[in-house]
Amino acid sequence: MDQLDLHHLRAVVTLAEELNFGRAAARLHMSQPPLSRIIGEVERAVGARLFERTTRRVTLTAVGEAFVVEARAVLARAALAMESVRAAVRRQAGKVSIGYTWFAFQSVLPQLLGRLRERDHDVSVDLVELGSEALAEALACGHVDLGFAGEPIELAGFESVLLHEVPLHVTLNAGHPLATGDRMGFDALAGETLILHPRHEHPRFYDRLLDACQDAGFTPKVYHREARQNCAALVATGQGVLLTPAGSSPVIPTGLCCLPLEGAPAVFRAEVWGVLPVGSDSQRLQALREIVLTGHGS
């Protein structure tokens, strides 16, 4: 087994996922003969077949299934170790990596970064836009040092602090019958399709909105937007209405209008949470944490 390295493990896992030598080889950026040779080397080292091959199909053996579980665990640990090293190098070089959601960048983040640069002119900041679920994973793996999310993130070594909240308004197509007023009743959402991110991207926000609608006696229709879809374009083409934080966009795109929701529950709001490291040995992270908490009034 000491003959095997991460290259061998990655080949086995990829073939187990594809169950096709051609597709697996393409993912690994190699041709099929080298992949077959690597799989053979692993099987000889293990002393058992990991895959059954016929002219029509490739399947995992029982030994192969057990091997893949362990191989994935090793690869995950190796990736985590590499990210930890990269994070240490980044901190030593004086860099700070920040994950953020769209609304955080529209509200609190620019001011906080301005105050950090006033204190430390040489600071280098990497900014990565992520959904809440991806941000939690990035924090856990060390891809980013701290985050600004749309909901609290429970993670060892971090604390979540509510920094900003505003009510949600509704963005409509300018030709919508309700667009002629200066506000929209909350109960009118019962007849509309809400354009929302998929639940896994912002689960707390998603559940809070739908629960509030159900408490009000209706279950709205939902259009789950995809990552690359432009929300304003979806509203403009009649796919539904969009819930947007009040004041988040000083310029309303042509053909749309934005109205306050009259009678909306208090939970119908957008939030920004700072997800801050606790006990970091980085002076720059300590400074940014202090700036965030001071600005929050803590």
Described by strand count, sense and barrel closure, the largest sheet is: 10 strands, mixed
First and last CA, distance? 54 Å
The total of beta strands comes to: 12
What would the principal axes of the Cα set say about the shape?
Answer: globular
Query: What percentage of residues falls in helices of 4 or more residues?
Result: 40-55%
Structural class computed from helices and strand pairing: alpha/beta
Strand content: 15-25%
Task: Give, in order, the helices and strands.
Answer: HHHEEHEHHEHEEEEHEHEEEH
Whole-angstrom Rg: 25 Å
Question: What's the number of helices?
Answer: 10
Average pLDDT over all residues? 86
Poorly predicted ranges: none
Concise synopsis of the structure shown:
With 298 residues, this protein is of the alpha/beta class.
Protein architecture, described:
Strand 8 (193-196), helix 8 (203-215) and strand 9 form a beta-alpha-beta unit. Strands 3, 4, 5, 6, 7, 8, 9, 10, 11 and 12 form a 10-stranded mixed beta sheet that branches. This protein has a two-stranded antiparallel sheet with strand order 1-2. It is 42% helix and 23% strand. It is globular and about 75 Å long. It is built from 10 helices and 12 strands. The chain has 298 residues and is of the alpha/beta class. It has 2 domains: 6-88, Winged helix-like DNA-binding domain superfamily/Winged helix DNA-binding domain (Arc Repressor Mutant, subunit A), CATH 1.10.10.10; 94-298, D-Maltodextrin-Binding Protein, domain 2 (3-Layer(aba) Sandwich), CATH 3.40.190.290. The model has no long low-confidence stretch (mean pLDDT 86).
